[in-house]
Structures are given as C-alpha cells and as structure tokens.
Amino acid sequence: MKPEIRALLERIYLDGTTYFDADGRYLHKVPSTISAQDLQALDAAGLPPNALSATTHDEAVTRLRELAARVDLTKAAEAFVTSLSSADLSWQSVLPAACLGLAMPAHEFLPMSQSNPICRVCFHDARGPLDLTERALFRSIQGTGWGSDGPVEAVAALEFALAHPTWPQPSEHDAWTFHSLLELLAGLPAGSRYSVARKALKAAKLLSANTVYRCESTLEALSFISVIENAEHPGLFTGWTSAVERDQRPNIRVEVPAPLAWWSADDGINTAVVERLFGGIRKPATRPSAPVAAKPKRGTAPRVAGRSLPGPVAAGDVYAVRLSEDLWTAVYCHAVADDDGPERGLVEYLDLLTPVPAVPEQLEGVGYRDRRNGKRWQAWCTGLAKTTGVRRVAQGIVAPPHAHKHEATLLRTGAKDLRYTADLHFDLSG
C-alpha cells in the first residue's frame, strides 16, 4: 500500500468517528478536511471508504477455494518471508489465506447457535458486511486478515495478491530474519507459551514493525500455517480444523485462537512444514545489512492554527476538545480541586460543535449539553493542560445557567477520554 494512501485511510479509520446509518450499517465518517482529489486517489487505488462487502457465505466459500487453488505456495511463502522485514505487511496474510482456502471444505452455513449467526465451520458472520477497505488497511498495518474472521477477508487477501503480476522476493536480510525467528522459537525455555514467545520476539527486534500486536500476529500466522502447532490442535496446512475447534482455548485468560493458544515450546517447530514451504530459502552465513527503509508515518490531520492559552487550570476556563479532525466541542471548568492530588478541574460539556476550536465570541449565550438521556453530567478531569487535542480557548467565562442544580460528584475522568464520552451527549453520526 502506498504511504500516501495509507496515511489517508488512517485519518478515516484510526482517527475518525463512526456511526450507524439508517440501514443499521456501521460506517466511518470521512472528515470534510479530506479533499475530493484525495477521495479520487482512494477510488483509483481500489480503496474507497466504507467499501462494504455484499458477499454471501456460500459465495465467499466458493470464491476462496477457487482463489487458493491458483496460489503458488512457494511464491506465497517467499512473500511471507519478505513481509517480516522489507515488504508491506499485507504479504504476511497471503500464505495463511491460501492454506485456509485449500483446507476448507465446501459446506453450508451452520450458525454457532440460534442467537449467534456466525458459521461454526468458517467464522462467516451473517450479521453484517465487512468493510474491505478497513481490512486492507489493517493488513498493511498489522499483517492480519487471512480469514480468522471468516472467508470474506481471506478472499480479499488473495485478490490483493493475485492482482499483482509479480510478488516480492526475499532478500538475504529477509531470509536471515526468517531463520532467526525460527531459531528464537526453537530456543525458548521448555514449557514456554505464546506470551513468552511474543515477549522474546519483541525483545529481539527482528520484525520491521516491532509492536506487541505485530509480534502476536506473526506468531498466529506461523501457527495457522502449521509451522508451530500442537498435535491435538494442528494448523491449516496440516489439516482442516473448523471455526469451533480454532475458537477453543485452554482457559479464559488466553486471548489468541488455536493452534497458537495450545502451542508451547515443548511442541517445537514443524520442520517438515518449514522444508515444504520454505525449503528454498536458506539462511546466509553472516547477518546481512538491514535495508534502509523509511518508517511509515502515521496519517495525521492538518494542523489547526492556534495554541492553548497558558496558565494553570482555573474556574471559568473553557477547553476545546477535538472529536475528529474536522469537529470540536468544548467543556466548561466550574472549579479546581484543592487537595494534594493531581490537578483536576470540574468540567461539563457545552452545547457546541465547531469545525475548528471555538473562539471566545462563539461562547456567548452557549449553555450546557446534557447527556442524551436528559441527565446533567459533570466530572473531575485530569490532564486538561497537557493533553493533545484539548486546548484552553477562553478564561474567566461566567458559568452559564442551568435549570437543574448538579449534586456534588466524585466521578473522575481524563482529558483524553473527553473525546469518547462526548458521544453520550451529542449525536455524532451526521
């Protein structure tokens, strides 16, 4: 995914607001600050916002099996290795998706239960469509999306790959990274589970995106393709396991699915699978130099002019709160805590929504915004003077009147949470 396309999608999917439309579909609001030219670029890349899939269960299963049969597993394995250090993380999802499609039998939709319309065979969710653009973004950020949430996302992963005439080839550094990863897993203390492996992988700094979630997704992918598996809970390259089987965990504290949920260092590495899929990729005798690659920058909104007014938090302050890159609200500070705890102001939302932070003139005659259930709300808030997206825009403002007196509250919140609790006061779906 091109960096400029990914940056636009991050502004929509990571920093934007969500809502349900009149048909009950879960959508992401496109900020008005994203231009028509930017939207055309997303369309040209095949990644328009809110690209909801209308694919049915049977269509997805059939399509996945057809696509998987077209995949050269050797090339998919090479692409998997490149995703560890040099290529876009999207290539990590291709081999697991192909393994899923090759193993999956044709089947009818069988719900988990009468109240849970997720297929017990393949995880297809009949409750609503997947946003294919959102899935493409997370394939690029996290290397996920090979079918752990159903065949539709696996189809998308394979269609992405098969649309490319050439697939990435592993460099010597990619090969060194892959074999170093296998050696790390093989050298774990006896009995080590996935959390220990994840911690060790992050500490080794082998992967291009060295985050906890990325380390976990790589381990999940390796277990999905049977490189690390448990004899009673095999990966998909070894044999078919249903959604119900993959959803089993040793206990409720285990967050990852099978096979990784059941694997331990005692199970070791399936060297036969490694040789079958990755046998042509040998480890260099010495560690090659790492490729010099610019780290992807997180997509951010255009900078809003102005700064927060200086000084300690005080009664009569008004703080603008960013809800999204083109929408702000504001809170009024009634009082400041006088104890020895962290600096806290007693805040209440004002009935105000603006595309940029409000200026004092816009506050004239503005009252409070109660919760959508009609109840008045106040809370003691920390971090007002040092939270990104919260800025003081006015001082010494007389408190607006309210028809109902608010009883003393012990409720506490943080300035960073004001963005999210605003949804309890405003309808932000428009």
In a few lines, what is going on in this structure?
The protein is α+β, with helices and mostly antiparallel strands. Helices cover 31% and strands 11% of the residues.
Query: Which value, in Å, is the CA radius of gyration?
Result: 26 Å
Q: Would you report the number of β strands?
A: 10
Low confidence ranges: none
Q: What multimeric state do the chains show?
A: single chain
Strands across the major sheet, in which order?
9-5-6-7-8-10
Helix/strand structural class: alpha+beta
Largest sheet descriptor? 6 strands, mixed
Describe the model.
- The chain is α+β, with helices and mostly antiparallel strands and 430 residues long.
- Helices cover 31% and strands 11% of the residues.
- The protein is built from 13 helices and ten strands.
- The strands form three sheets. A six-stranded mixed β-sheet has the order 9-5-6-7-8-10. Strands 1-2 form a two-stranded antiparallel ribbon.
- Helix 1 packs across helix 6 and helix 3 packs parallel to helix 7.
- It is elongated and about 75 Å long.
- The two termini are 30 Å apart.
- The model has no long low-confidence stretch (mean pLDDT 93).
